[in-house]
């Protein structure tokens, strides 16, 4: 733990928030179309209808805000999942949020010929919600009720099932592949603020819920028997945590598609900074998750310029070495 005292943690959170704001500004300024700080400020203070001002207002500002919100949501959801499953490699992927949302999107395109991004948002949110409910139900079967290992196994099984069904459907209808491929890769490009506004209330409620559950999660991570001995209703805490994960991870996937590794990387960095107290972990994950996704998105604009790669591919490139490091560290410690 690097930041050991309350004051250091508070200062660190303030610095992180400032860096997040700077990253939002850089996301608005940087890209294929050359703009400057002055041009960006003028786009909001004295809009003149020029190409640069239109790009800043209609493309880059929504992209920056969506990137910050999605990254923050994935960071907090990943930390909540790792606490709930006691699995250091847990992320929204592990309970099938990405796979469930992707499957529902592909079904909507193939069967109902839906191609609207606005429609994709609600379909993906519905798919993510149904997936988590099914995983929780399967993980609760048996005499012991909901346990971390059963939740993890149920999530992995459902994720594999939906992924296989999605691939099978796409093989049967290649025309659908062209329509959903960019969404399946995960991207914040081309999203409008309307999409963000439609999901934002759920994300805000879930974020507040995560902060309210933080102290109960601290007790639960010590051990379920200890938590019950202290009078905690562990079943209700797990259900509350599941609702938080649905809203955060489902909302993020609904907006930007399945973006991997943010929910794995960020909680580990945060625990290295502030330790195991989830009252600090959740706020830090929100800030650092937004920073990571914005940096990945800015980098994705320059890799093959003038073309761009989806941010989901960039986060995978960043996260894969980190994932391998964590996995090898876990093997050595075991």
Automatic annotation (TrEMBL):
<comment type="similarity">
    <text>Belongs to the binding-protein-dependent transport system permease family. FecCD subfamily.</text>
</comment>
<feature type="transmembrane region" description="Helical">
    <location>
        <begin position="120"/>
        <end position="139"/>
    </location>
</feature>
<keyword id="KW-1133">Transmembrane helix</keyword>
<feature type="transmembrane region" description="Helical">
    <location>
        <begin position="308"/>
        <end position="327"/>
    </location>
</feature>
<dbReference type="InterPro" id="IPR000522">
    <property type="entry name" value="ABC_transptr_permease_BtuC"/>
</dbReference>
<keyword id="KW-0813">Transport</keyword>
<feature type="transmembrane region" description="Helical">
    <location>
        <begin position="151"/>
        <end position="172"/>
    </location>
</feature>
<feature type="transmembrane region" description="Helical">
    <location>
        <begin position="235"/>
        <end position="266"/>
    </location>
</feature>
<feature type="transmembrane region" description="Helical">
    <location>
        <begin position="278"/>
        <end position="296"/>
    </location>
</feature>
<keyword id="KW-0472">Membrane</keyword>
<feature type="transmembrane region" description="Helical">
    <location>
        <begin position="95"/>
        <end position="114"/>
    </location>
</feature>
<feature type="transmembrane region" description="Helical">
    <location>
        <begin position="195"/>
        <end position="214"/>
    </location>
</feature>
<feature type="transmembrane region" description="Helical">
    <location>
        <begin position="12"/>
        <end position="32"/>
    </location>
</feature>
<dbReference type="Pfam" id="PF01032">
    <property type="entry name" value="FecCD"/>
</dbReference>
<keyword id="KW-0812">Transmembrane</keyword>
<keyword id="KW-1003">Cell membrane</keyword>
<dbReference type="InterPro" id="IPR037294">
    <property type="entry name" value="ABC_BtuC-like"/>
</dbReference>
<protein>
    <submittedName>
        <fullName>Iron complex transport system permease protein</fullName>
    </submittedName>
</protein>
């Amino acid at each position: 733990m690097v930041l050991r005292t309350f004051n250091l943690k508070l200062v660190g959170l303030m610095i992180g928030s400032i860096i997040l704001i700077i990253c939002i500004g850089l996301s608005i300024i940087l890209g294929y179309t050359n703009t400057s700080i002055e041009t960006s400020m003028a786009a909001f203070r004295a809009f003149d209808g020029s190409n640069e001002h239109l790009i800043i207002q209609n493309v880059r500002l929504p992209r920056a805000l969506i990137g910050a919100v999605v990254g923050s949501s994935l960071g907090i959801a990943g930390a909540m999942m790792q606490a709930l499953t006691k699995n250091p490699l847990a992320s929204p992927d592990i309970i099938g949020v990405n796979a469930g949302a992707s499957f529902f999107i592909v079904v909507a395109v193939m069967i109902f010929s839906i191609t609207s991004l606005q429609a994709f948002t609600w379909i993906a949110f519905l798919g993510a919600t149904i997936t988590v409910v099914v995983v929780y139900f399967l993980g609760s079967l048996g005499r012991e009720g909901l346990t971390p290992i059963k939740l993890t196994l149920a999530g992995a099984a459902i994720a594999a099932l939906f992924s296989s069904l999605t691939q099978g459907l796409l093989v049967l209808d290649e025309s659908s592949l062209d329509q959903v491929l960019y969404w399946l890769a995960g991207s914040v490009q081309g999203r409008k603020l309307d999409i963000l506004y439609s999901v934002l209330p759920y994300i805000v409620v879930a974020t507040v819920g995560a902060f309210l559950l933080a102290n109960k999660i601290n007790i639960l991570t010590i051990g379920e028997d200890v938590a019950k001995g202290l009078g905690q209703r562990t079943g209700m805490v797990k259900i509350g945590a599941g609702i938080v994960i649905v809203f955060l991870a489902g909302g993020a996937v609904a907006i930007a598609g399945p973006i991997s590794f943010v929910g794995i990387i960020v909680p580990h960095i945060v625990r290295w900074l502030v330790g195991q107290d989830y009252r600090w972990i959740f706020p830090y994950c929100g800030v650092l998750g937004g920073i990571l996704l914005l940096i990945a998105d800015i980098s994705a604009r320059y890799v093959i310029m003038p073309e761009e790669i989806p941010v989901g591919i960039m986060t995978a490139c960043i996260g894969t070495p980190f994932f391998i490091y964590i996995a090898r560290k876990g093997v050595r410690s075991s």
